[in-house]
Design goal:
Chain lengths: 510, 139
């Protein structure tokens, strides 16, 4: 299906889509600014409400929320020394010292502008790389899809921020959950325990809502009543745009950090937190005064924020083209795509090109809106961080319950949400990541269909030899081998073994 | 006493063995893939059991705090009660009691927030999205 750019621009600028983008950005900034609330949780809660909308409008709102949340995280990072999202963790290092020195408006201005630049550059690269990559998916048959699913699982598990072996367990737990329901080969219901609702398998959206929201609610309520160190009155804060000379000076930082963010975004499992720390470290390495980092260097804020916003577009590249999400938010959005009847891959850029390009172009609008809202409404967003924790917790419980019910008007989905919420909390509190579980649930059907298809078409031959004769499979095999090497390399650099927890929770977190 | 990671691995191993036994109810073609996944999951858990790592030596301290337990009870009661009592009544009671539990003096605030949520949910869901919630005994 051929679509003209004019048509796409006209689609983006319909009143409904502008409203969705603006609503998504505002909600995203609020979710990002609230410590404990993440973009993934925001999108998981929002997703059921977008089902009644046209697919493009729903995707626009979710994409805008993602972009808004990435900057929103900087608000609390700068003002209350607590990153609102994991991606803003590196922003705290220089953002909060700047605020303490009375430079809060400067730090906020830099965070907004660098987020905007990172976001815009990311979308340009997404537009450039996504269509050719999607065409590569045409070369994929069942063996390639099987290998791709395995690659997705191994890279996500190996980049698990906690223990590597636990990353693998989480991922394969997700794959096991994906086997519940009708078997794709003979159509026999499996592991349903006689429950008719489970014949169609576990519903992805309520499971996602539970996995991402309930553990966060527990964390939010735990911080109830804790005193927060904050920067006094921001009522009369003026942000404005940075001068041209400043933009010129910071351009290498923006470019370098955006590139790092894009690569980290494309790499399944790396995510915004790794991207922002990598960009921050790179900026410190390139600086003439690296010793000043951590004391209120504006370059530190710019590097972290440009990187975490370009992650958004980077994460969409493998998700839209190959069906392997780059991070947790992309995984949830992929669930949203599938519920709207859109399958990632070449068809998104041919059959559903109008929806896909409308969504991609709307990300520009979302970034522009983020820049405007951030510049002119920052004091209002900063007030959000004052909301009492118990009121936030009760609101999230309501939204998650209502959202799960609204999907199909079924109480069973609410029970699924609650069940997966409990599972998610148990996993998180024992040092497991929930992201590999989600990826496992999403990639499970792809892996099973791929394996069954491979066994069928290689009938009478050695299956392994059959796979090894296919060039794309060989490339994917090499990538799997590399991803399995990552934990070993990382552990050698850190001087511990692959079973230890380099970033794992400490006793207090447990 | 087993360390945390060993206990977790043991729970997984028991569940996987149960799942393996359960697969014997189905034709082999139907459970080939699940068995493949369960086998790998079993191997990973055996590895975790044998080598639990540093984290395994850490004592679980904040897994269930009073605030988390109370929140869980409120949440589970809410989900189980709203099909019985009716969505709006249960939601009102849930929001009101939860806020009052954490902030005993904020009666007016709790009433306003609970009423506000009811109005928003009614307008957005029943009037705009035409989604009807379970009525139960009341509303």
């Amino acid at each position: 299906m051929e679509v003209s750019m004019l048509q796409i621009i006209a689609n983006v600028f319909t009143p409904l889509n502008i409203l969705m983008a603006a609503g998504g950005v505002v909600l995203g900034i609020i979710f990002g600014a609230l410590p404990g609330f993440t973009a993934a949780m925001g999108i998981a809660i929002l997703m059921p409400f977008t089902f009644s909308l046209d697919p493009a409008a729903g995707l626009i709102m979710m994409g805008a929320l993602f972009a808004g949340a990435m900057w929103g995280g900087a608000v609390s990072a700068i003002l209350i020394n607590t990153p609102g999202t994991p991606g803003a963790a590196a922003t705290v290092l220089d953002g909060y010292p700047m605020a303490k020195q009375g430079r809060a408006s400067e730090a906020l201005r830099e965070s907004i502008f660098s987020s905007f630049v990172g976001g815009m550059l990311g979308i340009m690269v997404l537009m450039l790389f996504a269509p050719p990559l999607a065409r590569i998916s045409l070369m994929f048959g069942p063996p390639e899809y099987f290998m791709l699913a395995l690659f997705g699982m191994t890279i996500i598990a190996s980049l698990s921020e906690k223990m590597v072996i636990k990353g693998f367990i989480s991922g394969f737990l997700g794959l096991s959950i994906a086997t519940i329901g009708m078997d794709p080969l003979l159509g026999i219901p499996r592991f349903t325990f006689g429950v008719p609702h489970m014949v169609d398998g576990i519903q992805l959206v309520p499971a996602l809502i539970g996995l991402f929201s309930i553990p966060e609610i527990m964390e939010i309520i735990q911080t109830h009543g804790e005193k927060v160190e904050r920067i006094p009155s921001l009522k009369n804060i003026k942000i404005g745009f940075p001068p041209l000379s400043h933009i010129k000076k910071m351009t290498p930082t923006y470019l370098r950090s955006s590139l790092i963010g894009l690569i980290a975004g494309m790499l399944p499992g790396a995510g915004a937190s790794i991207a922002s720390f990598m960009a921050y470290n790179e900026e410190r390495r390139a600086s003439k005064t690296p010793e000043k980092f951590g004391t209120g260097m504006i370059e530190g804020v710019a590097a972290s924020e440009a990187a975490n916003n370009s992650v958004c577009a980077g994460a969409f590249i493998p998700m839209l083209t190959l069906g392997v999400p780059g991070d947790s938010v992309a995984a949830i959005m992929m669930g949203g795509l599938m519920v709207h009847g859109l399958q990632p891959g070449n068809a998104l850029f041919t059959v559903h090109a109008e929806i896909t390009w409308t969504f991609i172009f709307s990300l520009y609008l979302a970034n522009i809106l983020m820049l405007l809202f951030g510049t002119y409404c920052a004091p209002w967003f900063s007030a959000v961080t004052d909301t009492p924790r118990h009121i936030l917790a009760v609101s999230v419980v309501l939204l998650t319950t209502v959202g799960s019910f609204a999907l199909r008007g079924s109480m069973f989905d609410v029970y699924v949400m609650l069940f997966f919420g409990i599972i998610g909390y148990l996993l998180k509190s024992h040092g497991f990541d929930v992201v590999p579980v989600v990826l496992g649930i999403i990639l499970g059907p792809m892996a099973e269909k791929g394996l069954n298809g491979t066994l069928a078409i290689s009938y009478g031959q050695n299956t392994l030899w059959f796979i090894l004769q296919r060039p794309v499979c060989l490339v994917l095999l090499a990538l799997i081998a590399i991803s399995l090497m990552i934990p070993i390399i990382r552990s050698r650099n850190k001087g511990n073994d692959i079973f230890s927890a380099p970033h794992g929770p400490d006793a207090d977190e447990l | 006493m087993l360390c945390v990671n060993r206990r977790v691995a043991l729970v997984f191993i028991v569940c996987i063995i149960f799942a393996f036994i359960y697969t014997t109810r189905y034709p082999a073609e139907v459970v080939n893939f699940p068995r493949f996944i369960f086998s790998l999951l079993l191997i990973f858990n055996i590895v975790l059991f044998i080598k639990p790592g540093d984290i395994g030596k850490i004592k679980v301290t904040k897994f269930l705090t009073p605030k988390k337990v109370i929140t869980s009870i409120f949440m589970i009661a809410y989900v189980l009660l709203f099909p019985v009592l009716g969505f709006f009544v249960t939601t009102f009671i849930f929001v009101l009691s939860y806020i009052l539990f954490f902030e005993r003096t904020a009666k007016t605030k709790a009433l306003l927030i609970a009423s506000g949520w009811i109005v928003i949910l009614y307008l957005v869901f029943q009037k705009v999205l035409y989604i009807w919630f379970p009525k139960g005994f009341f509303l």
